Amino acid sequence: MSHTAHIRSHRKPRRSASTIAMRAGVAGGVLSTLAVAGASGSANAAEPVTQTLELPTLTADLAAQVAQSADATQQAAANYELVAERDAAAAQAAKKAKADLAEAKKKAAEEKKKAEEAERKAAAERAERSAERATLSASADTGSSESTGSSSVGSTSTSTATGSAAAVVAFAQAQVGKAYVSGATGPSAYDCSGLVQAAFKQVGISLPRVSQDQSTAGTQVGLSNLQPGDILYWGGAGSAYHVGIYVGDGMFVGAQNSSTGVVKASLSYDPPSGAVRVL
């Protein structure tokens, strides 16, 4: 027996073919499993990459939507602001129009009040003049009767009048005592211009209807150069408020007012403003 026979061999024992094959199979299975796991892991690892690649596209679309929404919001705000400005301008215009209307009404009321006051004043002045004329006319008629008798009116007015002027004077004197009615032209009542128009109609002369126009119907003459038949006027030429007929000897006939009617009076108590000669 060898002296080394009792020593265990340091060599590794031989493996059998079946053991090797089994181990190889196990190893192969493990490797296959690892490969599948690796493949699966690779596949699983690829998913985030795919999602990461899609994120920029989704983010761009979202940004575009946000931008569009912001633009729409800004446009809506601008529209609201424009509407607000228009409403404010309309309200301001309405307020100004209302103020202007109120001011116009106030001015119109003031003008109306002034016009009414002027009319009242003019009416009072006319009434005062009419009262004075009535008083002076009565005095003049009384003095004439006492000095010359009841027939002096006719002889005085016709003594210096001739032709058409005499006819005008005669007609005017024949109306003395008749009523005064505003707008009347005879034969039972007259106003001042109606009497003058009717008197000249007797000799075929057509005069304007109102005092203002009659005061410019002929040639202007001075009050110191009057002739019977001249038209006397009170007020301005073209704006006269009263007319009468000069009948001679400083006397005239006129339809004065509703209190006195048609009278014959002296020029001295209410001197006329001017005269026109038609004949």
- Give the class-level CATH name of the domain at 120-277: Alpha Beta
Helix amount: 55-70%
The gross shape turns out to be rod-shaped
Order of helices and strands: HHHEEHHEEEEEE
Task: Give the low-pLDDT segments.
Answer: 39-43, 135-159
Instruction: Tell me the span between the first and last alpha carbons.
Output: 200 Å
Strand content of the residues, in percent?
A: 5-15%
SSE-based structural type: alpha+beta
Rounded radius of gyration (Å)? 64 Å
Give me the side-by-side strand order of the main sheet.
3-8-4-5-6-7
Looking at CATH, the homologous superfamily of the domain at 120-277 is endopeptidase domain like (from Nostoc punctiforme)
Number of DSSP helices? 5
Main pleated sheet: 6 strands, antiparallel
Mean pLDDT: 76
Number of strands: 8
Report the CATH architecture of the domain at 120-277. Alpha-Beta Complex
Write down the CATH topology of the domain at 120-277.
Answer: endopeptidase fold (from Nostoc punctiforme)
Walk me through this protein's architecture.
There is one protein chain. The protein is an alpha+beta fold and 279 residues long. The protein has a domain at 120-277: Alpha-Beta Complex (endopeptidase fold (from Nostoc punctiforme)), CATH 3.90.1720.10. Helix content is 59%, strand content 13%. It contains 5 helices and 8 strands, in the order H-H-H-E-E-H-H-E-E-E-E-E-E. The protein has helices at residues 17-148, 152-159, 163-174, 192-201, 211-214; strands at 179-180, 189-190, 219-221, 231-234, 242-248, 251-257, 261-266, 274-277. It has a 6-stranded antiparallel β-sheet with strand order 3-8-4-5-6-7. Strand 6 and strand 7 (261-266) form a beta hairpin. Mean pLDDT is 76; it is low at 39-43 and 135-159.
